């Protein structure tokens, strides 16, 4: 979630908004420090701090603060077990802030930093009861006393070759998740009219060049309309050594491709790294949305394994508290 963009939109449309942040966690809790929820004056919200009674209570407090008008920030120190009956049993500090049009100028650099992509650090301090934030590079340690937050998000790049039924279902399945999708097909009018914001549809001219230019952490899925094209793309991808190269097809298709890969000199251990059939074992249904759901779960597993499971606005580097 782009927290600062969402907050700006709510303020622009509704005159005010609250930002609810998991500021600190001790023990077990539904979300890590840095999770956010942006709340409108009418109680509608975007994001989550974990759901359940904790979230309901913080929503009530945020609405009360918004009804009172823009004011000082508030820290709620909440035990989850005895106070709320949640089984997590940990303790959290929740930071709740209110914003209105007077804050849009201060928020603007954070919105811009979010739009640039990736993670960025913010240095925070209290001034007259409100949180003052500055981009870390704009301040410097000699001027800063407070705590740090990390905002933004890391999106894992995914290349999907093929805009058939499964390709379409997969792009939709990945739409709300932390992936950046490059969707490729060589056919004219292959793509639907609506493309999710995290995906870019590209008329493919040179598939091997696409593989050559992809970042080393990219995840590759091959599901074109043409088996020789599939083979050429997979061979190029295997040689690059991506964390995940997946090919749609059966065990029979895999065996045929493996035979050809050995003939062209691809090492045996590299061939074994190919994921085919794609998706989680045990899910046999071939309906495109079910294949897409299974493959999406598999990609999330790979993403976590290679160390890219970064939560937007992830855990702050605590050097102080408001």
UniProtKB/TrEMBL annotation:
NCBIfam families recorded: xanthine_xdhC
Domain (XdhC- CoxI) ranges: 12-70
Entries under Pfam families matching the protein: XdhC_C, XdhC_CoxI
Lineage: Bacteria, Pseudomonadati, Pseudomonadota, Alphaproteobacteria, Hyphomicrobiales
Record-linked PANTHER family: ALDEHYDE OXIDOREDUCTASE MOLYBDENUM COFACTOR ASSEMBLY PROTEIN (PTHR30388), XANTHINE DEHYDROGENASE SUBUNIT A-RELATED (PTHR30388:SF6)
Stored InterPro entries: MoCofactor_Util/Proc (IPR052698), Xanthine_DH_XdhC (IPR014308), XdhC_CoxI (IPR003777), XdhC_Rossmann_dom (IPR027051)
Designated name of the protein: Xanthine dehydrogenase accessory protein XdhC
Ranges of residues in domain XdhC Rossmann: 158-299
Highest taxon of the lineage: Bacteria
């Amino acid at each position: 979630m782009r927290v600062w963009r969402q907050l700006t939109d709510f303020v622009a449309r509704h005159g005010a908004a609250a930002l609810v942040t998991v500021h600190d966690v001790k023990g077990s809790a539904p979300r890590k420090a840095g999770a956010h929820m942006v709340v409108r004056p009418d109680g509608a919200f975007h994001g989550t701090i974990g759901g359940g009674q904790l979230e309901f209570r913080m929503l009530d407090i945020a609405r009360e603060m918004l009804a009172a008008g823009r004011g000082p920030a508030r820290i709620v120190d909440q035990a989850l077990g005895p106070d709320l009956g949640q089984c997590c049993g940990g303790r959290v500090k929740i930071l709740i802030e209110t914003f209105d049009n007077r804050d849009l100028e201060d928020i603007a650099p954070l919105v811009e930093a979010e739009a640039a992509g990736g993670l960025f650090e913010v240095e925070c301090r209290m001034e007259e009861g409100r949180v003052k934030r500055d981009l870390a590079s704009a301040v410097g340690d000699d001027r800063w006393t407070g705590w740090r937050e990390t905002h933004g998000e890391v999106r894992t790049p995914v290349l999907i070759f093929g805009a058939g039924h499964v390709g379409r279902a997969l792009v939709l399945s990945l739409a709300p998740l932390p992936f950046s999708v490059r969707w490729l097909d060589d056919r004219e009018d292959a793509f639907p009219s609506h493309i999710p914001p995290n995906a870019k549809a590209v008329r493919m001219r040179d598939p091997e060049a696409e593989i050559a230019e992809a970042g080393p952490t990219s995840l590759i899925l091959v599901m074109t309309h043409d088996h020789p094209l599939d083979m050429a793309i997979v061979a190029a991808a295997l040689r690059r050594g991506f964390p995940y190269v997946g090919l749609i097809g059966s065990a029979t298709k895999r065996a045929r491709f493996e035979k050809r890969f050995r003939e062209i000199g691809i090492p045996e251990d590299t061939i074994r790294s190919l994921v085919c059939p794609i998706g989680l074992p045990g899910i046999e249904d071939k309906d495109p949305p079910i294949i897409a759901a299974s493959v999406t779960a598999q990609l999330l597993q790979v993403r976590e394994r290679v160390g890219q499971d970064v939560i937007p606005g992830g855990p702050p580097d605590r050097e102080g508290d408001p």
